Amino acid sequence: MSQCLSVALDCMGGDYAPQEIVKGGILAAKDLGFKVFLVGDEAKITSLLKSEGELANPLLEVVHAEGVIGMHEPPSNVLRKKSSSLHVAGRLVREGRADALVSAGNTGAVLAVGKFIVGAQELVERPSIGVALPNPKGKTVLIDVGANVDSKPKHLVQFAIIGHTYAQEILGIENPRVGILSIGEEEGKGNELVKETYPLLKETGLNFLGNAEGRDIYSGKFDVIVCDGFVGNVVLKTSESLGLTVVQMIKEEIKKSFIAKLGAVLMMPAFNRFKKKADFSEYGGIPLLGAKKPVIITHGRANAKAIRNAIRVAGEFISHEFNRKLMENIERFTPEVKRTTVGSG
Amino acid sequence: MSQCLSVALDCMGGDYAPQEIVKGGILAAKDLGFKVFLVGDEAKITSLLKSEGELANPLLEVVHAEGVIGMHEPPSNVLRKKSSSLHVAGRLVREGRADALVSAGNTGAVLAVGKFIVGAQELVERPSIGVALPNPKGKTVLIDVGANVDSKPKHLVQFAIIGHTYAQEILGIENPRVGILSIGEEEGKGNELVKETYPLLKETGLNFLGNAEGRDIYSGKFDVIVCDGFVGNVVLKTSESLGLTVVQMIKEEIKKSFIAKLGAVLMMPAFNRFKKKADFSEYGGIPLLGAKKPVIITHGRANAKAIRNAIRVAGEFISHEFNRKLMENIERFTPEVKRTTVGSG
Fold first, then answer.
1. What's A116's DSSP letter?
2. Which A residues in the span 185-244 are in contact with B, Cβ-Cβ below 8 Å?
3. Is 0.90 exceeded by the ipTM?
4. Whether the model pTM is above 0.80
């Protein structure tokens, strides 16, 4: 029993907390054999465990915490609210009692706990968020999508190495094709940050193909696309919203015709299969890459299954020895040039 | 006849040049009463006019030019290639013979001609590209989508005023709701550029609602969203590509089932109506806003109808006195503060 992986699960964050979160923790213990620290209001969690008949499960341990960081609360509050479920869960990881952190709570607050309580992995300057976006042929990792803004060239180089490691070790992509997000294909196109980062990426020894454009994010031409967290976050949120808008606009048009309504009904199973492929929650959350231990941020709307998947993903980072390989890659690919410190601002 | 509006039409740029471009020019002359300068290879254009039976149309005037800027050529080449169709068309506008420029050619090259040959309108520091994106309730102007990178706060303030003028005068939106693209709703969220621009926008007197997120671009919550051209270009190209990817992935799923195929056939008319709403080419191209005279950049794939629509749009900018109103708005809304010159770089 001492060998099993353990996860600190913030049971109070997210739209369906604590019910769905606790249920997800139970699934992870039962299906995956994880030791799960259920962090939050002890009375509520215990009552849920009781009604699920899991009070005696030795893999489930309740850790009491008072309070929660609200979904619209300033994320930095979490660093002051030391008794909040998220802070307590973060400390369990920091202190080595848990091997990973999973939360469906306030994304910014989870990030803050990942960066400042769990802390950055050795050699990593800025932990960053990589998201594996679907394309017709597979997945493309976009990194960073919001952990850092106003990044410097040396940070983008690290994002590339982190993204490469994620694509190779977790997504199983051999020799990932790496690009830098820009606004033209040729070298020399882009803003100052891109122009300064491009030559550094050429020196890394990564499989660097050059500039990627917005249209390449979903084309499958690249396995890893590097960008500043401001741009990446805007792209990610635009994508989610555009998908919803397209569906809504098509629905409006379908409403206008009985035949179209019938067609929509017949298409539903195919459409649902597509939705499943495109749905982030199926992937079990988004990892903060480069933290000392895996930190998985799930969607606020995460249900029990999404939480279970997020815990499974955390386990993959551990069993694939992601952090050890990341350190090796940083040592291998970081260009030994002083230019990396001559950033754009 | 001297009263009619005139347009310099680059007949050699675009995937379907010169045939579709010349046909589009003919439509504009016949349907809209425009005087059209058909700029390009005289022999080819004359032969097309002849086969269309329009050689004697007094509204159509061929202006010979040698050579064309290739779609993948470095855009700056156009400034050296003075005999190219795009350069000659630009000069017709600069010299006052034509009231507007329309081209389906190399986007960067059209931009360069707009900025450096047609030139910026008085008081405008950086002409910028605004695109009216569809949302379920109407349109949202995203500005700038690629005319400028590494913009400073004072430039974003001008983009806001230009976008406001576009939304109000051309799209007919009363008191447009203006936002700045960022990665969080609250004031203080974002990168340095956003944080410095925010207080300036509050002082403009525009109907400024604060930060917009990626998800707001297609939500209809804002009428104008301001951003640096790097971010805007990435968002625009991502959107186009995501649309195509979604359609392709849905098609793959539909192929797997006969019933779904039948459903798709029944839905087709509704789907085509949606596509028409979402299709940029239906809008007749994207304007470079803040140039001395209207410059309309159409998609490289523009057909005759798209060219005709682009010429119609150019005419609207003139008949709505866009430039006069833009100057009034710049005088009215620009904050008289020195802070505007203390940029981020």
1. I
2. 186, 190-192, 213-219, 227-231, 233-244
3. no
4. yes
